[in-house]
């Protein structure tokens, strides 16, 4: 009821986005000038260079046909559900006539769940991989044919778990694992892994490499690397419970982004703060077109001028 009362019109939603995008006042995206005059359709026209800016341009709301009131309701519903929602569930809640609209909305919001310039994991971090998919006959070792391979990093926070990162990787070779670690873990941290050869050489990349060999140990892997295996278990339970396992590997990274967003904010007591954070990130990330979503093209718009 509070949401409906506060954002009861498109103007109220737009005003809230303006405060999120320009908290210190309007700044021209082209020349960084602050003086402007207001044109038609709420356009802000820069006095210095005459650039015409709108609050939704350059955000996930760019060129949207769905009213902002529906976007706000979608964000509130998504952040208020502890275990997430499916596109079908979102379609029913919003009363949308088209499943595709709900699917696009949900994936764009998952894209916004990755904050630009977010801090890397640091301290002591457990890293491992996990498979998603059924058994594959004739496949030896950590090779994959039809299954998806996911790299997972989990900060050690005493006996508990701090923040996490996860990403789908091509294979379990050093060529895939080392970039995942470099992109998600601060240099100088302690990276705790098993004895897989794909992790060898991390000490030469600016990390302290702690190795726990699992083979021959009485304790299961879940006890030797407890935090990362706990995260993996929760991920698989979430995928099966919320989405019944019906997730295309092609779009798996978007679901991993959502799980990471929710897990890293699991201790937040106020749903309203999650609503605020997701909206704040929605006006900070580059927009994604439907073509980019279906092609699984996660690069910024500026790097995809041909799309």
Please give a structural write-up.
The chain has 307 residues and is of the alpha/beta class. It has 2 domains: 2-116 and 283-303, no CATH class; 124-236, Nucleotidyltransferase, domain 5. It has 11 helices and 8 strands. Strands 6-5-4-7-8 form a 5-stranded mixed beta sheet, with helices on both faces. Helix 3 (68-80) packs across helix 10 and helix 4 crosses helix 5 (99-112). The model is unreliable at 299-307 (pLDDT under 50).
Let me know the largest β-sheet.
Answer: 5 strands, mixed
Structural class: alpha/beta
Q: Stretches where pLDDT falls below 50 for ≥5 residues?
A: 299-307
Oligomeric status: single chain
